[in-house]
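I hope you will forgive my troubling you with a question about protein structure. The record follows directly beneath this note:
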Amino acid sequence: MDYLAKITSELADERTASVVNEVWQCSLKLGLSTREVAVLCSLLIKGPLSVRELSENLDMHPVAVHGVLRKLSAAGMVDIILGTPTRYVAKGPDELVKVLWEKQVNQMKAAQAYSERLKDELALLVERTPVGIARTTPRGPRYRVIAGRRRLHKEIAQLLEGTQRSHHLIMSSYGIKRSIAHGLIDRYKECVARGVEMKVIADVSPMNILEASYLAKVVELRHLSNIQMRLNISDSRAMILGAVSQDEDLTLSPTNEIHFIIYDEFLCGAFERLFAELWKNSTPAGQIIELIEKSQTK
């Protein structure tokens, strides 16, 4: 149904028809449907009108007219005049434009939110590109929060899968035990097998001597006491950072741990320099393991 033609055909002069046409086109561009514009224009020209009168004027089914009026009324664009029958009248120009503008602003905000979400998801997809596939998409600094230890281990595993050159870790004494108990050691092996430089700074102690001995056969391992940081740096471009919490719990159950995953080459470079300094001032794990083993045989 050509509602515009039906409305303008009943107007007395071309100037008014031209104005209605402009109102029609602008209203459509501001997000109203064809039926909504038709009802609104009819009310502006002939209102107040009842559902029956609108139906007859526009040749639109009464049920459809009632549905449109309900939407326009809820949006604050139409007022209801109670009586027999109930009639409807359009709001003034200022109020109509304000409602339409707010509608556009809300749509823009929604579009912006979806765009930001899409950007994050696309960037994550790029970050997780399989090894051997060139990453050519430009990336800027990005940060995400990781909540819970299970999610942390999942993110570390995915980071390791995408590592191509180097992966540097700082972990606690119990962190060594968890990395073996929950399978990250297999990701370390895969990295080493494809030529990734794997360096780990950890707290080696009698409590984790067996796991540390095993880990030292897979990666370059050095000892540093009383570690309170969890750090993973991949290819100097992405890192996961957090503090040691509930360390004696060897499960993946804790949900209140918070870590940050950071894609920022400048910040990663700064932490790489910190790691290099700690590496220089730490002790080769083999020496600590040997001392512990000797003390245990006495």
About this structure: The domain at 141-297 is CATH 3.30.870.10 (Endonuclease; Chain A). The longest strand covers residues 142-147. The CA atoms of residues 145 and 260 lie 5 Å apart.
